[in-house]
Amino acid sequence: MQFDKKSVKKYLAAAALTLGSLFLQSRNAAAQEPVKVLFLGNSFIAANNTPELVKSFSESAGIPMMVQARMPGGCYVKYEPQGPFAHANNDEVYELIRSAKWDYLVIQDNQGFFIGPVVSEFAPVGHVIEGHMQLRDSLLKTNPCGKVILFSGWVDADPYAWAPEAGLYTAQEANTRVFQRYQYLNEHVDQIIAPIGLAWNYVLDSMESVNLFAGDNYHPSYEGSYLTAATIFTTITRQKTTDALFEGTLSPGLARKMKEYAYKAVLENLEGIRLEPVLRIEGDMLVAEPGYAVYQWYRDGELLPEETAPGIHTAPFTCFQLKVRTTEDCEYTSLEYCFDEHTTGISTVNPAEKIKCYPNPVTDMLTIEQEDSKLLHTAAMITDITGKVIEQFRVNGTTVQVSLQHYVPGIYILKLANGANIKIVKQ
């Protein structure tokens, strides 16, 4: 979560923060097993190579990721007229699922199957429920702890012109209907929904200058694919999208806004998308559902060894996160749940405010002082002026240092997770 300036000051005063150092992502990545994600879809995710965008988000947040995809144009999950071309009817798809211990299987079907006026019905020829369950079962045979990510996306910029029988007049109405149908599907599949269309609705409602659709009005533009990838990234990693420094071809301001909307869509629909463990407030307690074998709480990114109950007492200006283990020995992590005096939510701050970098120009050691609480335990990077990444690391303290001794003299950009881009001159 982000806080206003007043809340940040109080948060910092209350938190027991210690000085830290910058740990290079490259060193961490060498010891960290990558998250393995397989994508099944069609040209909707092939456009702008959405799987690679998701990987770019993840790696810019310090989380190694391996992706693979099958996304031939026009391919559906189990559409009867397509025969073995459809994913769930294709032997090669099952071989692909068995080829690795995938942590996540992202399934993108024809979204047109999800806009019918009766939420509890699908077109019979689509075999929507059957196809998703077949692919899910194949994943779980390979990895019992794996999860399917259901692609709740968009349909068309003008759904009434495209399918008047559905009775939908705006893209927002269509995206909401699609999400409702995915919730019905998930009553059978019992996995996780990526609320992509809901993130699109935020942008469609508030950013008229941003066109999420390509020229044909149903494939995504680059902005649409970027927003889609941001939503999938958070759904998979349970990290804030603002922890990811990846901006693609977008301006820093637009990228940050899109990331915030993607995170908001996930955060505000946790129970609807079934992103376990789901945290909720009960009095002065933050609690998770019962039934897990192990509970372990974190506060402001720090392990609380004694806090192993399903609930924990809340505190203002504090962020909590829960890791659980099931009786089947599967581990899952909640989204971070943050508190200020009154509410939880996303607010905006000046990205470069309260950040000092010195000396600048620098010859050897660069010192970074920052008072933005949400930068703690998040990713950062240094690029050259062309955007080439020179170094990636994580910020683990309010005062940190990084050596530029071996940098070639010139101009570099320090990019932090709050959207700040700070010019650094190396002498």
Unreliable spans are 1-30, 341-350
CATH superfamily of the largest domain: SGNH hydrolase
Which range best describes the helical content: under 10%, 10-25%, 25-40%, 40-55%, 55-70% or over 70%?
A: 25-40%
Looking at the structure, the CATH topology of the largest domain is Rossmann fold
Rg of Cα set: 22 Å
- Helix count? 12
Assign the structural class, choosing from mainly alpha, mainly beta, alpha/beta, alpha+beta, or little secondary structure: alpha+beta
Named at the architecture level, the CATH assignment of the largest domain is 3-Layer(aba) Sandwich
Q: State the CATH class of the largest domain.
A: Alpha Beta
Number of DSSP E strands = 21
What can be said about the biggest beta sheet?
5 strands, antiparallel
Distance from N terminus to C terminus (CA atoms, Å) equals 37 Å
How many domain units?
Answer: 3
Pick out its properties.
alpha+beta; Immunoglobulin-like; 3 domains; five-stranded antiparallel β-sheet; 427 residues; single chain; Rossmann fold; five-stranded parallel β-sheet
Describe the structure.
The chain has three domains: 33-273, SGNH hydrolase (Rossmann fold), CATH 3.40.50; 279-334, no CATH class; 355-426, Immunoglobulin-like. Helices cover 29% and strands 24% of the residues. It has twelve helices and 21 strands. The chain has helices spanning 5-14, 25-31, 43-46, 50-60, 91-98, 128-142, 159-162, 171-189, 196-206, 222-237, 252-267, 270-273; strands at 22-24, 35-40, 65-70, 104-107, 147-152, 192-195, 279-282, 285-288, 294-299, 302-303, 311-313, 318-325, 331-333, 337-339, 355-358, 365-370, 378-384, 389-395, 399-403, 410-416, 421-426. Strands 1-18-17-20-21 form a five-stranded antiparallel beta sheet. A hairpin with a 2-residue loop joins strand 9 (294-299) and strand 10. Helix 4 crosses helix 10, helix 8 packs antiparallel against helix 9 and helix 9 packs across helix 11. Residues 1-30 and 341-350 have low confidence and may be disordered.
